[in-house]
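Q: Joint fold for the lines below.
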Amino acid sequence: MPKVGMEPIRKRQLILATVEAIHAVGFNRTTVNQVARRAGISPGLVAHYFRDKPGLLAATMRHLAEELREELARRLAAARTPEERLRAVLDANFSDRSFSPAKVSAWVAFWGQAHGDPQLTRMQRVLRQRLKSNLAYPLRALVGHEDARRIATGLSVFIDGLSLRSALGGEAELDRQSARAMAQDYLDKQLAQTPRVQREHHSDVETA
Amino acid sequence: MPKVGMEPIRKRQLILATVEAIHAVGFNRTTVNQVARRAGISPGLVAHYFRDKPGLLAATMRHLAEELREELARRLAAARTPEERLRAVLDANFSDRSFSPAKVSAWVAFWGQAHGDPQLTRMQRVLRQRLKSNLAYPLRALVGHEDARRIATGLSVFIDGLSLRSALGGEAELDRQSARAMAQDYLDKQLAQTPRVQREHHSDVETA
Amino acid sequence: MPKVGMEPIRKRQLILATVEAIHAVGFNRTTVNQVARRAGISPGLVAHYFRDKPGLLAATMRHLAEELREELARRLAAARTPEERLRAVLDANFSDRSFSPAKVSAWVAFWGQAHGDPQLTRMQRVLRQRLKSNLAYPLRALVGHEDARRIATGLSVFIDGLSLRSALGGEAELDRQSARAMAQDYLDKQLAQTPRVQREHHSDVETA
Amino acid sequence: MPKVGMEPIRKRQLILATVEAIHAVGFNRTTVNQVARRAGISPGLVAHYFRDKPGLLAATMRHLAEELREELARRLAAARTPEERLRAVLDANFSDRSFSPAKVSAWVAFWGQAHGDPQLTRMQRVLRQRLKSNLAYPLRALVGHEDARRIATGLSVFIDGLSLRSALGGEAELDRQSARAMAQDYLDKQLAQTPRVQREHHSDVETA
DNA sequence: TATGAATGAGGATTCATTCAT
DNA sequence: AATGAATGAATCCTCATTCAT
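A: Joint structure:
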């Protein structure tokens, strides 16, 4: 049943099937045939669209990263103050779409594979850096440079820990809402004990 | 060249080789032959001592957990106050022996495999629970029950995040000392904003 | 973009692409998709015109044989004496068109595949027989029947050997001109040591 | 059924099975499983001994070349005069062991694969060079340098042609004895028309 | 206790072929 | 007449596991 314009559809089907398979049977038992069957597609098509298994896995991870980026971009566009920006970053990371059990499972599985796979390692590094930047930027409006960097690092570490816990424990142990709350708590407690800085373009407004 | 009393030596050799292999080539490329060769042992012996590959992997993880337990027990034995106990828990988790690059890599690899493997999942759950208990107990001497539980959970999440970051980034990005310091910072900031509780057996001492 | 009268054009394109592919990447890596892409044609058309891969390969070999036949026919038409006929046969076999590197590569590749493929085997046999006949006929005007047969066989064997050498060694080792000269040398040396026979219809001419 | 010292036996079994398979079903249908089954061995052992399929094929060709070398060495050791040496070279190339139908089939199959396979190409080149040297050396005792080179080249080309003919036509068309005779005829006819040269170290003997 | 040769099931990948458009 | 997406059988290869020694 050959059709035109199927490429994006097929790719999406296969990527979703990959995430589901990882969540359902674990990374090791996730074979190309598994994924293809789950997507209702012939295994040969995987090669057609992703070249090989590493290609499929990399594309899957890229897809997850892209989803996260979209969620974040949408929320940041509506944010006006540093506080709103910080909230937007957390909202994106714990959004219904990005923090679903299957996707969190996939993230953790990829973390476990990153060692020894240069491509995955690079992607992880980029993602981590991006999260830190997204946090550090609004923080610099509130606290000193060094403190902003420190809090951004700590919060991104904490978010990773929450993902891990969520994936390993199942939803029962740590649901999305609680994870979100714990991240917020982390941020609040850090800010509460960090000296605020008056920044020039803020003073202007305040003295006006 | 069969010898008697080789069992514990062989087991240790194979377990260490497993950790090294995971760190060196990643979980997926860690084959039984790889591990055996690295240990300077015939692959057939793996079956003899661990029955099969899952057996070797479970034993390896059990070994890591046991090491952590030993480190902790030793330090807790010398701890007298709640503060010392908390420090002991952190010291154990970030000890030279438990937080080596290879071992942290192995932890993260196991996390990635836990999904779908009931045995690994169970072990993870037990470990996590143990860490939380070890933290919550001394905390209950300082803060309320609910706060103790909350801080213990948060800190164990944060420690996991630090391990992950350490494994993925390499030592360059987050060394052992810095990770230890960040965990301490987390604990300090949490305690600073949590109301202290006067407990009976402490009041006695203090009022004396 | 369906057009009429495309059949011979498409077939030629695909056959030439097959020869080029064999020369460029070797027989084994010559896939239908390879050939189609090289011809700038959809792989589906291969089935349309040649039914399947064996059909394409057989047609390709038939094409090479036909080319050789044409070259020979043209030259033979102009030949008047037995000597001219012999020269014509050699000229045809070592012509620019028939003895190009790509085509010689293709011949050798087909030889390697002939075993176990009845169709290819049959074609090889026919070709060989034809070459031998084309050589034996003019030779019979010069030497005895048995000698003619012997020299024809030997020369056709030698020509095959030259093709092989030319294909394996690349043009650097044995170019077309040298191969032609060696074949001629073979023929000359054989004739020089074979007793000539006076044939009736020749004596008439000569005694006239 | 693991045993020690099986390596050379297994390798020989697999190599012979490879030659037989190529002869029986053709190069393309010669799969690793085919060969293993034919050798009465598990397919996994192929990887154990030859790494992969190309490794097996290369080893097979190397084996054929080595066999030829042995045949030649044995005969050359017994040869005293240039004429005996030349005869030894032909005897070796058309020996019962080296010129069996299956082995000739294998040679031709390898020729067809050499294009695009650097390893096979190199081996072919070395073999061809060796044959030419083995012929040129005794020839230089009989004729001039340039003539020796020319005859050696021509004869080795002719031998290749005979192998090809023998493989394609089956034994019916050109048996081993006839092929041998044709090669001898080629050599004799060439020598008969090439001026002999008196070489110093021969004159000494003859004038003594 | 120890070896490592041998097995064979399982997985990734290739590719000739089909077929809806 | 032409496309090229899709199929799925076939092949190579890996690797956990077994077992004779």
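Q: Anything notable?
A: Chain D is about 80% helix and 0% strand. The CA atoms of residues 36 and 43 of chain D lie 5 Å apart.
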